[in-house]
Amino acid sequence: MNIIFFTPRFFPAISGGEFYILKIGETLYNKFKDNIQVLCTNAVDFKGLKTEDGKFVSQDHPYYRKYRDIDITRFVSTTGVLNNSTLYGKEFIKLKVLCDSCQLNMNDNTLHYFISQGPVLNDNFKLILKKSENFKPDLIHATYLPYSVLLYSLILSKKLKIPCYCTPFYHIYNPRYEKEPIIDIMKNFDVIFSCTEVEKNFFIKHGLSSEKIYTIPMGVDIQLYSNPVLSKSGKKKSFCRVFGVDKPFIFYCGYKNHEKGAIDVLKAAKIIVKKNKNVNFVFIGPSTHSFDIELKKARKKGIKILNLTPSNLKGYFDWRKISAFQECSVFVMPSRSDAYGMVYLEAWAAKKAVIGARNEVMKSIIEDGKDGYLVEYNNPNQLAELILRLLSNPELADNLGNKGYQKIKNNNSWSKITNTIKEFYEKIIPRS
Asked: ∠ CA 21-27-32 to the nearest 5 degrees?
């Protein structure tokens, strides 16, 4: 089977959506001998999908055309369009012509919305089509909201007359996603993979057919996080030793913004150190201006914080990130909205207690008081209280982490998840 994955970004861009594509594609290639082609932009950060001020991967980068077993074709977005009404109007017309040429039934409001999110690939579409025709795909699997690659994926599937699957990673409770065009575009996909039943029920409530929505969770490399990280000589590597971090330390891994709860963790840190001055805090992930401001305030108060960004690391499997999960005392990411939250699985794989924010999605993933804790979003006081409770009771923390480990061991291996996705592929595309 020949499979195209169409995604806004790919490695060295790092987020759950990119990792999802990598692991499914890699498993399909290794287990089923499927041919995989990733189509994406050259953007590294989300700003690069819209503007020239973003970060981009250069053509001489070692992973520009291939990462591990995955072949990659990158396209350059037409940047600078969204702030120029004349250029925007021209690009909108081009996009509408593309939609009309394949009889894709999409209203103007939807087209406006998705082109405004970026990337703008109209001028590259002939090249995208030619590259895809040469690859001879059986299907397209697109991801993720709210970016225009979903729209280009549908256009491409119509041109090639092949089915189009989508894993949208819809973030319930995030105002950015509460847009009518998102429901409009979702109705056009042949199959939708939701991460949770909450996400599935949301789409059904908004008029999508339940018959084409299948719930498949996120996965994790369980062995990677549950076994010690070893050097080539067989010596155990230690995050704490390399960075001089004393235990206990609280670990956050994700985009460092208000939405993901990173700033709440910094605010909670100020409360925690009043009762326990020995606690350290480690943050790994892309930073934001608002986080950097709050970080300076926290450091001025003498709080011990180590802050790492993806540029400090060497990919999804960087040993320092893995070791940080293994050596932390508690993992926290009290995010307002998430489609799933792969980082909780990584923490559980390392048998660590987790704390997330209380919402319907997280309640379907974290069993409050059984394998982790849930807190009110934007409530640093409650977050600090729970962290202190776990620090003062290591046995409780270990118990929560072990229960989380047992849960994901049975349900969240990438092999099991990819097997399920493969079955759904073959419901529409029978194996030859």
From this structure: 125
